[in-house]
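Let's practice the habit of predicting before peeking. Look at the sequence and jot down your guess about where helices and strands might fall. Then scroll down.
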Amino acid sequence: MTALKQFFLLLVSIGLLLIPPGCEKDSNDDPQAPGTQQIIDAIVDSIRQSVETNIGKVVPTLNVIIQTPSETWFSSSAAEGYEAITRDTYFRFASNTKNFTAAAVLNMQEDGWLDVNSKIVDTIPGTDIPFVPVTDAWDIPHKDQITLRMLLNHSAGVYDVDNDSVPGFGGYSYTAYTQYFDPDHQFTAEEMVNQAAIHQLSYFEPGTGNHYSNTGYAIAGEIVARVYSAHAEAEKQLTDYLHDYIYGPESPVPLEMHFPYLASDQELWEPASCGHILEDAGITEICDYNMSAQVAEGNGFSTMNNLNTYNRSMQKGENVLSSASVEMMRTYTSTAAPTYGLGCFYKENLGYGHNGARIGNMSLMLYDPIHDVSFVTYISAVNDPDFIPTIMAIYEVAYAVREALGYPGKPTERTR
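Done guessing? Here is the structure:
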C-alpha cells in the first residue's frame, strides 16, 4: 500500500475525509486513477482544519487548482457557514500583480521601447521624456543610480511607504494612515514617492542590498504608463497596457482580469470570494476595497483558473514574452537580490512565480518547468497578528497535493 493511500485511509478513519460542496473533478480526469479527487479533497480539508486548530479561529476557505501535462484538478474546502468557491470565482490576488508589471516592462523591452538596464532618470528611447518626472516630488535618494531592473528585483533601495512607517503618521505607513481616515482617497504614484522624497527615506544605495518595496513597483508601473503614453500619444495608465498587451482580448492569451486604479473602482466581480481578517475579537470580512494605493504591486483580481493559465503560459514561453525574456524574469542577476528575479521567485519543488497577501486574501501561483506542473493556491483568510499559519497553508497544500499526484513534495531539511 502506498503512503498516499495510507494517508487517505487515515483521514477516513479519523473522520477528516470531508467532501465539501464545490470540490470537483476536471472533465479530462484520468479514469484509471480512482479516488484521486477524493484524496485531494481530503488533503485540502485536513490542512484547512489543522490551521483552524492551530490558531483557534475559523478559516473560511482553502483552495487549490493544479495542472499537470495531462489533467487539471480543483478542490475547495469551506468551513461550516461558508460556501466553497469554484475555479471561476473572482478574488484579489494581491502581489501576484508584480509579475504582470514585470511582464509589461519586459515586453516593452522586446519591442524596443525601453531597456531594463536604463536608469530611471534616462529618457524614453526616441523621445526627450524622462522615465520619471524631473520634479521635487520625485527627488528620492540615489535617484540617478536606480535602474528599471533594480525596481523589479527589489535591489533599488526605494523606501516602501505602503508597508513601512513614515514620519508624521503615528508609526503607520503613509497609505495605511491616509486610507484609515479617508477610505476613498485617490492615491497616485507621485504622492507616495513624494513621501520618500520629503523625508529622504531609503534602505540602501541602489544595488547594494535587497528590500521588498511596493513603492518601487509603483514607480515601475508609472514608468510603464509614461512609456505607453509616449508611444500612444495619449494619456495611458499601466492598466491600459496590461489590458492591451498582457491579458486583454488582443493579447496572446486572453483572460478575464481587472487591475483597478481608481479609488471609486472598489467592487469585485461576481461570483466573488471576499477576504477575511481573523482577529481574536472576531472575523472582519472585506469584499469591496479601494486599491488605488496598490497599482502595479497588488491591485489585480481574477479567478484561480485564469491566474493559473496566465502563469503557466507565461513561464512556458507561450504567452506575450519570449523564452529569453522569461529566463531573464527568472534569473537572479544581482548578489544584492539573491532570491528574487524580475517580478518572480523560485521555490524548490514548486517552481517559478509569485505570491500575494492583501486585505484578508493570500495566494500563490507557481510553475515547475521540470515536471510541467503549475498551480494556484488560495486561502481567503489572514490571521492577525500572526499571519504565518495562514500563509504556510498555501504552501503546505501545494506540496501535499503535488505529492498526492506523484510529484516531488516538500523538501526535507537536508535537501533544502
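How did you do? The radius of gyration is 21 Å.
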